[in-house]
Amino acid sequence: MSKRPGKSKLYTRGGDAGKTSLFGGRRVAKDDPRVVAYGTIDELNSVLGVAISFIRQRRLVASLQKVQNELFNIGAELASDKPVRRRRRSDAFQLGSDSTMRLEQLVDEFDAKMPPLKTFVLPSGSVAAAAMHHARTVCRRAERCVVTLSRKEKVNPEILAYLNRLNDLLFALARYLNKTARRREILWTQEP
Question: Highest-confidence range of 88-92, 125-129, 163-167, by mean pLDDT?
């Protein structure tokens, strides 16, 4: 007779009925706006990881990995049912304005390397650029999910500013990655 294997550390069975626990212990439905918001942040982080895998510039990879860490912190902050308070050293997960300002500097840096746009750009080009466009669209969805959550519960306003600026950065990087790959940007046309 074989022994029954021990319980896996990968599953707890606690969510089998469609509920999950927030940091702090409160149980909520898996489609609760808070869970949807931090779940979409997690998806954004994963999609960004795919985009990064196609990039060879070390400095750019390092900058985007910092973004991934910040997204993980945002997810942790959104997964907490504690009320948002002023940032203190003990608030390890709470996003501050310094992160958004760093994104603005990166947007300015990479946008300055590109010609001005007169129309929309189709999300295409090199694999790296197309993956960055994909990350950009997931970022917009994550932002919409956080807006929905903010109508129901208090949310750190820096998260919305950060996601809005991150979208700008991902767009600027998609354009830059096409340029460095010598891929022509395909512009939107109003064809009937």
Answer: 163-167
- What number is the average pLDDT over the span 18-40? 79
Confidence of residue 89 (pLDDT cuts 50, 70, 90): very low
**pLDDT greater than 70 at residue 92:** no
CA gap 110, 41 in Å, rounded: 24
- Residues 173, 60: contact at Cβ < 8 Å? yes
Tell me the domains of the chain and their CATH numbers.
Answer: 29-80+95-180 (1.20.1200.10)
Q: How far apart are CA 94 and CA 50, in angstroms?
A: 26
62-101: b (≥16 Cβ within 10 Å) or e: ebbeebeebbebbbebbbbeeebeeeeeebebbbeeebbe
**Residue 78 token pair:** 């959104």
